[in-house]
Amino acid sequence: MATRVGILTGGGDCPGLNAVIRAVARRSFERGYDVVAARGGWGGLVHGQFETLGPREISGILPRGGTIIGTTRTNPYRIEGGVESVLRNAERQGLDALVAIGGEDTLGVAARLHEEHGLSVVGVPKTIDNDLSATDYTFGFDTAVTIATEAIDRLHTTAESHNRVMVVEVMGRHTGWIAVMSGIAGGADVILIPEQPITVEQACDELRSRHQGGKDFSIVVVSEGYELAYETGTRRAVDRGGEDAFGHVRLGGVGDELAREIQRRTGYETRVTVLGHVQRGGSPTPRDRILATRYGLKAADLVHERRFGRMAALHGDAIVDVALTEATAELKTVPPEWYEVARAFFG
Ligand code: F6P
After folding, report:
1. Which of 76, 211, 221, 231 gives 82 a disulfide partner, CB atoms 3.0 to 4.6 angstroms apart?
2. Residue 253's domain is classified under what CATH number?
3. Is residue 246 part of a domain?
């Protein structure tokens, strides 16, 4: 019987997932392997929902956003009997290997299943947040930065016409990668991120000094995970309440609060734009298509070599493999050097 390779996409979707699926499948077909998708992330393995992928199913998907095999934030470890169901369904399907494409949560489950139950799994690092350790970049991030940068460019012209401060809230969870990179690319005047929490007072001072210098509009980029920080030392987190199956609170709303603070303290008319899921939608950039394709080929090769418990990663310009446990051990935060690049243009 042919080797059967399972594949799943878990967590929030992002551009490039289909490019990985295509690459894993194409290389596996070349070797005479069958490819089976678990539908809806770990949920597909928990509930036994599978679909065979053939050349037809993967045709034309390279530029498509989203994922053709669906995704959820299902956590088998939070469902009674979930882990046993995953193992039973993998065996019933005759899976010889599984490629898990996901971020911290999806790959964290993969790492545990490998460590604790010997599941034959390899990982591919996905997330617009770029917060996974052991890889320089995750796929999906470049597209999100591109979308956010374009939004900042557009907001510039309307801000300038109306002499307004525009606050742009971007995603990124507890790291400020999207905010810093799109802020640098878009020429933001202040950037607020969780890792380098400048205070609301400092942000307002930057805006005042800019306006005193002759500019009468400004762009402020704030990461959804930034906690409003004040000179008194107090911090105020803003979220939308509720938790997902991995215990993450739903972020969002800090842009509104910050805009209110800026207008109240400086008197400058201020508006807010929350980019939200637009950052995750649509076609991947060429860079993400290429990165996702290289990751997919690497994952298929790891499967062929039976090197399980590993994850495809980018180091410099080279695709390498690292331990899944290493990739999920800690969040990759924005280093101070990057923030300093952004800061050089504040005010
Ligand atoms: O992890 C990707 C991400 O888009 C985060 O940036 C954001 O906080 C979260 O997912 C949003 O999740 P959901 O799609 O469940 O609203």
Report:
1. 76
2. 3.40.50.460
3. yes
Q: Is 171 in the pocket of ligand 1 (CB under 6 A)?
A: yes
In whole angstroms, give the CA distance from residue 118 to residue 110.
10
Domain count, the chain: 2
Interval 248-306: pLDDT, tens: 999 999 999 999 999 999 999 999 999 999 999 999 999 999 999 999 999 999 999 99
Cα 291 to Cα 130: distance, rounded to the nearest angstrom = 13
Distance 214 CA to ligand 1 centre (A): 38
**26 and 123 assigned to the same domain:** yes
Residue type, 176: G
Query: From the CA of 345, how far away is ligand 1's center (Å)?
Result: 28
Residues 111 and 74 reside in one and the same domain: yes
* CATH code of residue 114: 3.40.50.450
Answer for the pair 323, 309: CB distance below 8 angstroms, yes or no.
Answer: yes
Sequence length of the chain is 347
Look at residue 1 in the predicted model and tell me its pLDDT.
83
Whether 172 lines ligand 1, by a CB cut-off of 6 Å, is yes
Atom of ligand 1 nearest to the CA of 244: 15
Instruction: Evaluate if pTM is beyond 0.85.
Output: yes
Which atom of ligand 1 is nearest to 279's Cα? 4
Specify if 338 maps to a domain. no
